[in-house]
Amino acid sequence: MSFLARNRWWLIALGAVVLLVAGAIAWPSDDEDTSDIPSREFRLEVPEEPGSDSLISLDATVYLPETTPAPAVLLAHGFGGSKLEVSGDARELADRGFVVLTYSARGFGESEGLIGLNSPDHEVRDASALIDWLAEQPEVLTEDGDPVVGVTGGSYGGALSLMVAGTDDRVDAIAPVITYNDLVKALIPNSGTEDATPITSAGTPAASPFPDPGVFKRFWAGLLFTAGSPSVEAPPVASPELGTDDEDGEGDEGSEGARPTPEEGGTGDADGGTGPTPPGCGRFSPELCAAYVELATTGEPSQETVDLLADLSPARFTENITVPSLVVQGSQDTLFGLDQADANAREIAEAGGRVKVVWFAGGHDGSGTPGEVRDQIGAWFDFHLAGRGPDPGTTFEYGIPRSVAGGGGTRVRTLTAPEYPGLVDTAATEFQRHRITGDPTPVLTPAGGQPAAITGLPGLSGVLGGSPDVAGRLHRDVPGQVARFTSEPLAEAVTITGTPRVRVQVSQAPGAATSGTAVLFAKLYEVSPNGTRTLPGQGVSPVRVTGLPADGTPMEVDIALPGIAYTVDSGQRLEVAISTTDQAYASVTEPVTHVVGIAENTDLALPTTQGEHATSPVPWGALAGAGGVVALGVVLALVSAWRRRHSTDLVPDLEDVPIVISGLSKRYASGFTAVDGISLRVERGQVLGLLGPNGAGKTTTLRMLMGLIRPTAGQVRVFGHLVRPGAPVLSRIGAFVEGSGFLPHLSGMENLRLYWAATGRGRESAHFEEALEIAGLGAAVHRKVSTYSQGMRQRLAIAQAMLGLPDLLVLDEPANGLDPPQIHQMREVLRRYASGGRTVVVSSHLLAEVEQTCTHLVVMHRGRVMATGEVRDIVAGGHGYTFHVDQPERAAEVLAAMDGVSEVEAHDSSVQALLGPVRPGAAVTELVRAGIAVEQAGPTGRLEDAFLQMVGEESAP
Asked: Where do the ABC transporter domain residues begin and end (predicted)?
């Protein structure tokens, strides 16, 4: 199966998920109830254009604290959202004692106007008009007639806070979160330069100072453009840290950004009545629409587009920002990387502003904004607006995510340095160097840029509950398109904080087209001793190299790899991979080959920062006295014994293998042998069908796989861990075996919540929305299960098994009670689920359904394995294949001449043969080389025929 075929459903499923992940951020309240915060709504009229008499209105709400007058905070929402999206955040800040003003930006929610993408003449002027309004309110604290006001927001709203601070001197403090500095560098990044100046000379840790446009970030740009189109009926585009105030995940009515279209009873005028926008522009201004169409169709910007994006960038205004600025960025963010926050911090410090930098383990691709980060934003405004609380200082804080063994989620270790390196009057970043080696490698850019490598697709880590290790392994490089250069195993652990740098050589391959341009994508992998590659942060650095000599002379290029905050343990290797394609970017479409090598005597330069981790001291005082010492000794002895007992529970070489079963048997006291010495191995990405007649041992095997019963002999390993009852690795399995056990007096939703609460894991990692979409129950999910049909119960059970998006999904007879359309839907769901790198095991007696759903089969009979392998091979029996060709007789001659092929028969329009050891692809290749047109190829026969041959008709299900 081709690379593209293996991954297309994974891409489709992921694309559907990331439609919910485009750029808003909020700071949802934790446990404190702030629902009684008083508020009032109003509409503010602002000029449609500067100096115009034509007005549009903005929909706004002000939240009032208990005591006034008080400092004010202007809180802006993310792209695709509205004021409703940040209502919880506003109440939280109001509860801290601030007057908080939220509003829907023009073109979103109930506000009129066209989206100008934070245009200085539109959205930025609107924000200043809102500050004018605040200055007139008696509840707002003023000084010399000016309101005391701070501005904050995430992504789109974060950029607005920067631009308002750079244009309106009434702003007193800002806190921009996961936002951008330069839209050209963010959306058309170029992470390489032919300049001979070493890029390690950059003082700040995540600097990527290359100014020229590079490669269009088409995946993210497409999502953003879609979020501004009324033709797409979608929820407000929000990053996974947001969620909604509605615990059912349905959101608040009115939070959709699109205004009514003519078909919905609206005017069709996104600006509130000044005339229609050009076709396909949605709510965007015509200039932005034209720029997007140009980039989406050509992949390269004109100078006019570059100038437009530059005019809409905070970088144009940061030289004017002198107010205290808390710069918050996520280290799991393929939309706006750490380099964007680095530039904001550096430029504000150069302007004279006081800067504190926080990197948290989240972002547009990550899990939720931690509560401590939200508290820091509140504390920043407490000190700089209200003059209360301790000085937050100008430290640099960064979170290092680590996955907990056994599927226990992710923990973050937060380190603090006295200052952000490389700012004014601070020491430059230190780099640790590691030699990397590897031979120069030819890399092919395929025609059309497909198949393409998969790295850094939007929202990936968020979908997986924010686990960096799991998300970091769901990547694909295409053979023949990638060059790899590797270090020796690290002698000691290193914590990377920022942008690693490397210098490579690029040349045109002999005889290649002489375009003089190469588009490459650079990644930094962590490679474990067993060869498993992890991509920290899921980031990729696009590089556009121009001016390559036609004679093949190498050109040296400095590359800034993706910025990360990540610890690489000792014994691990570091690998720089340079590929020619990436699914998230607009790559070159003309086929060409380049040669990539490491520049002579080049080291991989890793930025490091000396941070301290505040840990709570062990309460040794509580253990004082002889009794405490004895108790401690007993505990340590028990822990030591437990560790010795379980030291063989993990086989490191099998950590990436979902299932390995060795000599597994189950014999009951009655003497009946249900499973008799079976062995098999299941790989990632497979949909494995466990097929057999009643009594074959399928369900018993599944129950031993999940630790529900103990085997008589043999063992089961899941991701290298030995399966025992209660083993932690079982948390990585989602299962539906022998009945769902739903409580009939509760609704479907209540049953799902109750089940997830019983697992002891946090609600934020459950992914209820995805599970309910899979179930397809609609409003019925809120009805009592006692009213459900068998098919509805079955769909709810499948959704329950998929809660938490487990790495391994086990389903016993999932199609029972489903009608044909529902079976078809389930088939597609399972294929998509597995194609993302997860594994699905399905036990079923429906032969036709197994044949259409599964990629691999295990056929069991009387407790033994009768056959294993790919479905097509088992269906083919003795490897019988039929080829529909234009020259049957000639095709028969070609096949008969191949070693291992036998029983060749030519028919009117086809030829049949037993291929034996010959792969079908190799046979097709030989036929094509012989000038024979192959219209279709496939196994001869049906699964039913092969199954009956193995188990006999009397045993058939």
From this structure: 659-887
Q: 3-state DSSP call for residue 548?
A: coil
Contact 933, 886 (CB under 8 A): yes
Q: Say how many C-beta atoms besides its own lie within 10 A of residue 272's C-beta.
A: 18
Assess contact for 57 and 47: CB atoms under 8 A. no
State the Rg of the chain over Cα: 30
Cα 744 from Cα 741, distance rounded (Å): 9
Q: What is the pLDDT of residues 548-603, one digit of tens each?
A: 998 889 999 999 999 999 999 889 999 999 999 998 998 888 889 999 999 987 89
How far is C-alpha 569 from the chain's CA centre? Answer: 23
What is the spatial order of strands in the sheet that 880-885 belongs to? 902-906, 910-914, 880-885, 934-939
Burial class of residue 41 (count of CB atoms within 10 Å of its CB; 0-12, 13-18, 19+): exposed
Q: What is the pLDDT of residue 391?
A: 94
| Whole-angstrom distance, CA of residue 88 vs CA of residue 81 | 14
pLDDT grade, residue 230 (50/70/90)? low
Single-letter code of the amino acid located at 193? T
pLDDT digits (tens, 9 = 90+) for 141-193: 999 889 999 999 999 999 999 999 999 999 999 999 999 999 999 999 999 88
Peptide bond into 562 cis (omega under 30): no
Instruction: Say whether pTM exceeds 0.85.
Output: no
Q: Would you state the pLDDT for residue 956?
A: 47
For 720-737, b where at least 16 C-beta lie within 10 A, e where not — what string?
bbbbeeebebbbbbbbbb
Question: Is residue 504 within 8 Å of 597, Cβ to Cβ?
Answer: yes
Residue 894: per-residue pLDDT: 92
User: What would the two tokens of residue 98 be?
Assistant: 């601030």
Residue 474, token pair as written in the block: 């769901």
Cβ(883)–Cβ(870) below 8 Å? no
What separation, in Å, do the N-terminal and C-terminal C-alpha atoms of the chain show?
30
Chain mean position to CA 89: 25
Phi-psi region of 749 (alpha: psi -120 to 50; beta: other; left: phi over 0): alpha
Rounded Cα distance, 408 and 759, in Å: 11
DSSP bridge partners of 544: 519
| DSSP labels, 285-352 | -HHHHHHHHHHHHHSS--HHHHHHHHHTSGGGTGGG--S-EEEEEESS-SSS-HHHHHHHHHHHHHHT
Residue-by-residue DSSP string for 862-922 = TTEEEEEEEHHHHHTTTTEEEEEES-HHHHHHHHHTSTT-EEEEE-SSEEEEE-TTS-HHH
Q: Report all structural domains of the chain as residue ranges with CATH numbers, in order of start.
A: 430-608 (2.60.120.260), 652-872 (3.40.50.300), 877-940 (3.30.70.100)
Torsion angle defined by CA atoms of residues 708, 714, 716 and 717, in that order, rounded to the nearest 10 degrees: 140
Alpha-helical (H) ranges within 673-813 are: 698-705, 748-758, 768-775, 790-802
- Per DSSP, what are the bridge partners of residue 432? 606
| Of residues 130 and 880, more confidently modeled | 130
* pLDDT exceeds 60 at position 743: yes
CA atoms of 73 and 168, how far apart (whole Å): 14
- What letter represents residue 540's amino acid? V
Print burial letters for 90-108: b (CB count within 10 Å at least 16), e (below 16): bbbbbbbbbbbbbbbbbbb
The mean of the pLDDT values for the chain is: 80
Please list, in sequence order, all residues whose beta carbon lies within 8 angstroms of the beta carbon of residue 109, skipping any fewer than 6 positions away: 59, 81, 82, 83, 84, 254, 255, 256, 257
**Side-chain half-sphere exposure of 809, counting CA atoms within 13 A:** 31
Helices (H) and strands (E) in the chain, counts: 23, 40
- 87-95 and 371-386 are packed helices; what angle lies between their axes, rounded to 10 degrees? 50
Identify the residue whose tokens are 């919905």: 264
